[in-house]
Amino acid sequence: MTPDHCQDPEPGIKVRSAAPDETFPKKEHLLKSKEFSRVYKKGLSGRMAGVILYCLANDLGYSRLGFSIGSGNIKRATSRNRIRRLFREAYRKNKDKIKTGFDIVVIVKKDLSTDLTYDSAKETLLKLAKDIRLAA
């Protein structure tokens, strides 16, 4: 028997799901240290207001996103996580504006958590992507 929260909704109740192009599946996460190093050494970079964006073409047919937000620069884990969530959401919602087939690393060098909103994260991400010809 399945728990109540796992059962199908009642008839007439609509369940919203993200549009297929707005998802952020595990395969699109850049996780391994070796992959980050490769992007740092061989990739292009752009910088703006305490944020650095690196990118390097991959042969996968889809882009992957990784973050480097050091505890030396931003002391509180809650601040680091909030910054990561906002940039991840900005990427997820604007994937269609960024070219596919790239490994992308976002490095945050200073604590932006008090000033950062979704709109400013989106603006920063898209401007940096445009600067390094990753976005149209």
Report Rg.
Answer: 17 Å
Number of helices: 3
Low-confidence stretches: none
User: Overall mean pLDDT score?
Assistant: 85
Number of separate domains = 1
Helix content: 25-40%
- CATH topology (fold) name: Ribosomal Protein S5, domain 2
Q: Can you list the strand order of the major beta sheet? A: 1-2-4-3
For the record, the CATH architecture stands as 2-Layer Sandwich
> In percent, how much strand structure appears in the residues?
15-25%
Tell how many strands the DSSP assignment holds.
4
Report the biggest beta sheet as strand number plus sense, adding barrel if it closes.
4 strands, mixed
Cα shape:
globular
Order of helices and strands: HEEEHEH
Q: Class in CATH? A: Alpha Beta
Q: What is the strand and helix layout of this fold?
A:
Layout: H1 33-42, E1 44-48, E2 51-57, E3 64-69, H2 77-93, E4 102-108, H3 118-131
Parallel strand pairs: 3-4
Antiparallel strand pairs: 1-2, 2-4
Q: What would you say this structure looks like, in words?
A:
The structure is a single chain. With 136 residues, this protein is α+β, with helices and mostly antiparallel strands. The chain has one domain: Ribosomal Protein S5, domain 2, CATH 3.30.230.10. It contains 3 helices and 4 strands; from the N terminus they run αβββαβα. A 4-stranded mixed beta sheet has the order 1-2-4-3, with helices on both faces. Helix 2 (77-93) packs across helix 3 (118-131). The model has no long low-confidence stretch (mean pLDDT 85).
